[in-house]
Write a structure and sequence with these properties.
Largest sheet: 3 strands, antiparallel
Radius of gyration: 18 Å
Strand content: 5-15%
Distance between the termini: 26 Å
Protein name: Protein kinase domain-containing protein
GO cellular component, one term: cytoplasm
Number of strands: 5
GO molecular function: ATP binding; protein serine/threonine kinase activity
CATH class: Mainly Alpha
CATH architecture: Orthogonal Bundle
Pfam family, one: Pkinase
CATH superfamily: Transferase(Phosphotransferase) domain 1
Number of domains: 1
Shape: elongated
Order of helices and strands: EHEEEEHHHHHH
Structural class: mainly alpha
Keywords: ATP-binding, Nucleotide-binding
Length: 210
């Protein structure tokens, strides 16, 4: 098992790294769902990333609330178990008796979790996908495989000049360093961005969906 660390988006200096992490997450959820497993508690704190990188690898943890059912369209009638992101169909008032689909609840949680990766600046249409995933009506949400397919299509159309540009978090840290006249911080953040840029540029083919 490699050395793992919490997902820290400030370690993702380029949009390429952010999109690669998001791609791994949606593909991971699609794989779990294909096996009839709903995670039940998708959240940024239940994801770990490889300590070394880029490229980073994402791992799912905490399957205590997972639900196993080969029929992914099946509605379950059970008490909401308390995942960190609660979908609207299991509000507290009815959580003990209202049926819900745990697989579609995963999709809602995934849409909320994606906001941490700042995918919108280089690809505004990604926001539309997120909104679809977070529909109040579960029946209007796409499946995990449909999300993965849509993500791959949108990702493939992003120009390289955008995909290798610095993330909003990186730009913010640059501004903080400049305003605070902290040259050491500015050079460190710039160096980390350039190192990541070089690594990803020469391995850029791997950052396109197959």
């Amino acid at each position: 098992m490699p050395l793992l660390a919490p997902v820290e988006t400030d370690r993702l200096h380029t949009h390429a790294s952010a999109f690669e992490c998001a791609r791994q997450i949606i593909n991971g959820v699609a794989f779990l769902h294909s096996l009839g497993i709903a995670h039940g508690d998708i959240h940024i704190s239940n994801l770990l990333m490889s300590h070394s990188g880029p490229p980073f690898k994402i791992y799912f943890i905490d399957f205590d609330l997972a639900h196993i059912d080969p029929d992914r369209t099946c509605m379950v009638v059970c008490q909401w178990k308390g995942g960190k992101i609660q979908p609207p169909e299991v509000d507290e008032e009815f959580s003990q008796r209202k049926p819900y689909n745990p697989f579609l609840a995963d999709i809602f949680a995934l849409g909320v979790t994606w906001q941490h990766f700042q995918l919108t600046p280089p690809c505004p249409y990604m926001q539309e996908l997120r909104y679809t995933m977070m529909e109040d009506d579960p029946a209007s949400r796409p499946t995990a495989q449909q999300c993965a397919t849509a993500f791959g299509t949108l990702y493939a159309d992003i120009p390289k000049t955008s995909i290798f540009s610095p993330t909003l978090c990186t730009r913010y840290l640059w501004r903080v360093a400049v305003r605070g006249r902290n040259r050491k911080m500015w050079f460190r953040e710039l160096a980390e961005y350039l190192v990541e840029l070089c690594i990803l540029f020469f391995r850029g083919v791997e950052y396109r969906p197959s």
